[in-house]
Specification:
The protein is α/β, with parallel strands linked by helices. The protein folds into 2 domains: about 1-235, TIM Barrel (Alpha-Beta Barrel); about 250-320, Bacteriocin As-48, Chain A (Up-down Bundle), CATH 1.20.225. Helix content is about 45%, strand content about 15%. Strands 1-2-3-4-5-6-7-8 form an 8-stranded parallel barrel, surrounded by 6 helices. The radius of gyration is 20 Å and the shape is globular. The relative contact order is 0.11.
């Protein structure tokens, strides 16, 4: 099973929609919904996870679990109950965000210093939502070091979570390679719930080695899928005679155009060109054609000019 990671400011509902159209993704997790000291109105949940209007699935039919981030068990439980009433494919809890602005307020990876609070949050949320609704959590290996990794994982499991994702780095290690997949194996040996491996999975070979070292059958991919939208398909086809990269630029370009159309209809006009350039900046690591597109558009902020350029690329491709 391949899960698509949540990535604040990048992997939002727009990119979830497009990447799940490509295929190879079995489930998504939304970017976090921050919970502080109040019960959020329904519109906040549906703004961040508009898939709630579509039965908790992307338009390609891939289920989306909505992720909550907060440090108060009672408030997390109240918001989880309201969120559950909106019909997500499950509720995920964030114990891994490394952002300083989040950690300063005791959320995300900062909770890895407090396994007892992690347990209290998971248990409170589990009690607050219907028994049939999955509750999962994502954690890192620790805050400054990984000495309490197993303790935190047990707190999640014993709190009643159905599944956990482990990003194989500490908060201090941020996103710097390598990922310490062998520590996921230690966690997997200590808990009885399913464990999903995450971190530094950019290629089919990375996925194979991660599975071997961590012992996990389930993987979560994030930046690797943004760079190569066919990565999930390629991982699933590995071992066959399928190509290492399952999606060509000719197949991807219509989806880039679809991405742009969603951005121009759903996002603020000032952010539109930037969102496209953000994705092209990732894609150019894999596709030479994306490098050409990025260079052509990097100084352009007019949606009309971007629209014209992309449509000309589509027209020229059709004549080939």
């Amino acid at each position: 099973m391949i899960l698509l990671a949540p990535m604040e400011g990048l992997l939002d509902f727009v990119l979830r929609d497009i990447l799940t159209r490509v295929g190879g993704i079995d489930r998504c997790v939304s970017e976090f919904i921050r919970i502080t000291d109040q019960l959020l109105p329904e519109r906040v949940f549906t703004r961040i996870v508009p898939e709630l209007h579509n039965g908790g699935r992307t338009f390609a039919g891939v289920p989306v679990r909505a992720q909550l981030l907060g440090s108060d068990p009672a408030c997390m439980a109240d918001n989880a109950a309201r969120l559950a009433s909106l019909g997500p494919a499950g509720i995920d809890l964030n114990f891994g965000c490394p952002a300083n602005v989040v950690n300063r307020h005791g959320g995300g990876a900062a909770l890895l210093k407090e396994p007892e609070t992690i347990h209290a949050i998971v248990a409170a949320v589990r009690r607050a939502v219907p028994a049939h609704m999955p509750v999962s959590a994502k954690m890192r290996l620790g805050y400054l070091d990984d000495s309490r990794a197993v303790e935190c994982a047990l707190a999640i499991a014993n709190g009643g979570a159905n599944e956990m994702v482990v990003h194989a780095r500490t908060k201090a290690q941020a996103y710097r390679p390598p990922a310490y997949w062998e520590r996921i194996a230690d966690i997997r040996a200590a808990v009885t719930i399913p464990v999903v491996a995450n971190g530094e999975i950019w290629t089919v070979d990375d996925a194979r080695r991660c599975k071997e070292i961590s012992g996990c059958d389930m993987l979560m991919i994030g930046r690797g899928a943004v760079v190569d939208p066919g990565l999930g398909l390629a991982i699933k086809a590995s071992g066959s005679n399928a190509p290492t990269h399952a999606v060509t630029w000719a197949q991807l370009l219509p989806l880039v155009l679809d991405f742009w159309h969603i951005v121009t209809t759903r996002l603020d006009s000032k952010a539109q060109a930037g969102r496209l350039k953000q994705w092209l900046n990732f894609l150019r690591r894999r596709f030479p054609e994306a490098e050409v597109a990025y260079q052509a558009l990097k100084t352009i902020n007019s949606p009309a000019v971007v629209d014209d350029w992309l449509n000309r690329q589509m027209s020229s491709q059709k004549t080939l």
